[in-house]
Amino acid sequence: MNLKLRFIAVTCLLLLSSAVAYGSTSHRLAYSKKMGAEVYVTQVDGVWCQEAVEVKVNLESSSSLLNGGLENFLHKVSTVLQKDCGTINNVRFDVYRGDSKALISSYSSSAQKSWAIVKSEPNNKDEKSVPESSQATSSKGDKDSHPASSKVASQELKVASVENVYGSGFEGLFVNYFRFNSDQLDRNDFRWWARDRFKDEYRKVRRQEFKLNSLIEKAKDDFTNTLNKWDENVVTLVAKSSIGKYDFDNGQFELQSSLEGWNLQNPYYYEDSFHRNTVGVFAVEIEGADLLRDVVMKPALAEKFISKRTDKWNRVDRTVYVKINFEIDHSSYSISGNKISVKGRLHSGKVYNSKKLSTEVLSIENSQVETLLAEMKARQEAAAKAEEERIEKERIAAEEMRKEQEKRRFVAQKEAYIASLKSSPLSIRLASYLYEKSLIRPRPLDNLADARASAALNGGPVRVGMLIQMDEGGRQEVETQWPGLLNVNTSEEMPELKSSGWYLVDGFLSVINNGKLEPAVLNATRLQACQEDMCKDLASPELIVERYMKMKFSEGEK
Amino acid sequence: MQLLKNKYLIAIVVVVVLACAYLVSKNYANGYATDRIEAFLIKNNLKDKVRYDSVSASVFGSACMNDVTISDNVADVEIGSICVNKIDEEKGSITFLSVSASDFNVPLANIAGKNPYFARGANEPIYRLLAVGATEFVCDMVLDYDYDSSDQVARMSLSSSANELGSVSIQYKFDHVRQSIFDLFANGSDTFSNGHAVNPLAGLALLQNASSFSDMRLADYSVIINNGPYVERLNQVKTISTPEDKSKWRDLLPPLSNEKLIKNGMVPSEATEFVSVYNKWKTRGGEVKFSSNMERPLPLLKFVTSRVGGGAESFFGITNSQASM
User: Fold this and answer.
1) Are residues A286 and A151 in the same domain?
2) What value, to the nearest 5°, has the Cα angle with vertex A187 and ends A186 and A190?
3) Spatial CB neighbours of A386, under 8 Å, sequence gap ≥ 6
4) CA atoms of A512 and A412, how far apart (whole Å)
5) What is the pLDDT of residue A307?
6) Radius of gyration, CA atoms only, chain B
7) Do A209 and A353 have their domain in common?
8) Which pLDDT belongs to residue B160?
9) What are the tens digits of pLDDT across the range A318-370?
């Protein structure tokens, strides 16, 4: 195989590197059928990108690399690793012969040695720890792989179930939900679990119903064991996020999005229609998660932090990784279709500099959460109050300004209003005295005929403003001289109606719908006694305008 | 919509009054009359809308439906009695008819109040009646019709009086009236109503009988209106808001033009007198009489087709009407 072909092969091999082995401690970096090689990178806490990386290479018995070109191949793998992981310094390669699982040789490569591939002593500690996925895909039967897989799964569960991949704690939530709702478990859920826990086996048997059934039975047992062993109420989510620009006033970076709401999608939802018959999505609300948003950093350190992330074109890599441990409130589970909503509360959390999750830039321990939450709530409440006060202040200021402008406009037109009133009939002038709005939009007082018709049509009392002259004095059912056929009622708070006295009245008029012409009844709600006949003393245009200004624009008076 | 319903109600009332009157008039015996009325109501789907207490007939030729209630979703119209006082027939057509209705009670406030689209402008007469306390409009009506087939002369008179509001009396005399016109009304129940709405084909039927009307002439008319009690009521409730208020309600009756009356054939001095009396009555109210003083009868069809849009002056002028108070 010439160099060009090898390069193509390696490129193809690297293109396949997106495969991720859920629930395993190794990340399958690449696989090439042609070269008979499979490359795994060991993960720590679900992350393979570390300063020192261990790579396991399984070569099939027919692999051409057994006959030469291995070091060249490893060099290319090393190059890819450097490209994918900026923080890598040291790589150790253990090469296995796949059929016997025997360690053939070990190599190392480091930045210190300019990434030269150097043969090294075998790592005895890991000599037999072939990656789980490798076992699953090996030519050995399932019987051999099941116990190991099951064992590994059980040991790994706390990690795997809570942090399987970035941004998804789906498995952890899946376990937690069914821990409290085991009566809802059915075959589809166990099938999902089989897919999740025994990926490779599942892939092999999914089209053969009997084998699949056996696997589902196995998954059922495994899930029951899991429920028995894993009784945590804390689930972890790891997510990629980004920081905003440095806030020099507060000396901090702020994460650009809220961490309180999450939608965790079933990772196999679109892979197989069977997996749509289980939980489709977990909608999680985490109280206090936003405590992780403010990354406080001194300016000098912040500058260094940003400098390291700045490329030659001054572009800044603002990516950070957030790990949130949250406590599930299992009483808050609610179902809508295949979506399950749940609420939680921050237990602890960290913000990391890089994908390796090794360098923290912010850490909140469980013991701090209570205090910080209380502080945050107090801050939020204070901010809300301040905002309310600000809005109220603005409203008052706007209202005062509006009033001032209105007053200015009114004063400018004051003479025009007086002139208009002077040329208006008594009815309109008195209405302007009785109702403020009537000065701006002139209308006459009500007459009895119209008021009667309106009340008859309304089938009940209608509001009226009328000029009346009393026939007799009193408070109840007092007959009027003007307009006649009208009886007036007043309340105790109002002055007693005087015989022959003229009044301006605001109130409610009603009639009896019996076909006869009987006196209407006016229940007064406001009464203004007059000194002169027809209330002419209240009809002075200057008086009306001054009174309007006093009522409308003076402080404390209305 | 409500307005249409009101019109529908009025249409039902008119149809029911005419049809019931006709049926009652044709059947003197109580039982027979009752059967015919029941059949009529069922046939026209009016059974749930029209109720009556009893039917009575006398040996002297009168027949009455008593305590009639015409119901609609809006309100009930109550009629104390509808009577056919006398009826003569000749060759299957009615030649004399005297019908009366007493205590005809229309609950105006209910009908108007339940109409959410009630607008004063379109319902000014109702509004004015409500203003003077006529929340229930109660009246009596008498309709007389006399036809002489030998000289083809028909006389009609309608008089109505409403409690404490006023009265109206209308009399018309027509000549050249063919008997076929009345056949149309004789078959009224089928022609004018299908039980749900006024039959649109009625118009077509009228057109088909247009030839029957072509020669018909108005020989004489007189209208006496007395609105004195209404005006008196209105003066009591005051349409102004202060004693010195000069504002007025919009004129309900149209103004008459001297020139137009003269243009339509009235002598100038008589036109002036007519307008003067008319305006005086409009202002003060009371009893007024309008009557014709024609040299020649007025061909009705010709008048209607040539004077459409001519206003009241056209009619008063061409009939050389006189007004007196």
Assistant:
1) yes
2) 95
3) none
4) 48
5) 93
6) 21
7) yes
8) 94
9) 999 999 999 999 899 999 988 999 999 999 999 998 888 888 899 999 899 99
The separation between the first and the last C-alpha atoms of chain B, rounded to the nearest angstrom, is: 40
- Total domains present in chain A: 4
Average pLDDT over residues A213-240: 86
Do A431 and A410 share a domain, yes or no?
Answer: no
Query: What is the domain range of residue A403?
Result: 371-423
The closest of A462, A413, A469, A404 to A439, measured between CA atoms, is A413
Nearest CB to A447: which of B113, B137, B238?
B238
Q: In chain A, which residue's Cα lies nearest the Cα of B124?
A: A453
* CB hemisphere CA count around A415 (13 angstroms): 1
Nearest to A67 by CA among A1, A12, A138: A1
- Closest Cα of chain A to B73: distance in Å? 17
CA distances from A397 to A386, A391, A393, A404, A550 (A): 16, 10, 6, 10, 20
Q: Judge if A263 and A184 occupy the same domain.
A: yes
Q: Which residue has the tokens 């789906």?
A: A170
Q: Each residue of A191-201: pLDDT tens digit?
A: 999 998 898 99
**Contact: B241, A458; criterion CB under 8 Å:** no
The predicted complex's ipTM stands at 0.77
Instruction: Determine which of A426, A469, A513 to mutate to test the interface with B (most B C-beta atoms within 10 Å).
Output: A513
What is the reported pLDDT for A539? 94
Which distant-in-sequence residues (6+ apart) come within 8 Å of A218 by Cβ?
Answer: A146, A194, A198
Listed residues A406, A423, A440: the one ending a domain: A423
* A174 and A312 part of one domain: yes
Residue from B78, B127, B135, B232 to probe the interface with A (highest A Cβ count within 10 Å): B135
Q: CB neighbours (10 Å) of residue B130? A: 26
pLDDT of residue A62: 79
Residues A296 and A251 sit within 8 Å (Cβ to Cβ)? yes
Give the highest mean pLDDT range of A39-48, A149-158, A457-466.
A457-466
Contacts of A456 in chain B (CB under 8 A): 109, 112-113, 130-131, 133, 135
Window from A343-357, B76-90, B206-220, B238-252 with minimum mean pLDDT = B206-220
The highest-confidence range among A97-101, A354-358, A546-550, B213-217, by mean pLDDT, is A546-550
A106 and A179, same domain (yes or no): no
Chain A CB contacts of B132 below 8 Å: 449, 452, 517
Burial class (CB in 10 A: 0-12, 13-18, 19+), B131: buried
CB burial of residue B91 (10 Å; 0-12, 13-18, 19+): exposed
Q: Is the pLDDT of residue A121 over 80?
A: no
The pLDDT score that the predictor gives to residue A169 is: 81
One domain for residues A164 and A239: yes
Q: What is the pLDDT of residues B29-56, one digit of tens each?
A: 566 667 777 887 888 788 888 889 988 8
**Do A339 and A191 reside in the same domain of the chain?**
yes
Last residue of a domain, one of A112, A137, A162: A137
Is residue A558 in some structural domain? no
Domain CATH number, residue A498: 2.40.50
Residue A349 lies in a domain: yes
Closest-CA residue of chain A to B110: A457
Measure CB to CB from residue A467 to each of B130, B133, B241 and give the nearest one. B241
Q: How many whole angstroms separate alpha carbon A252 and alpha carbon A299? A: 8
Identity of the residue in B120, B134, B238 whose CB atom sits nearest the CB atom of A515: B134
How many angstroms separate the CA atoms of B317 and B266, rounded?
A: 5
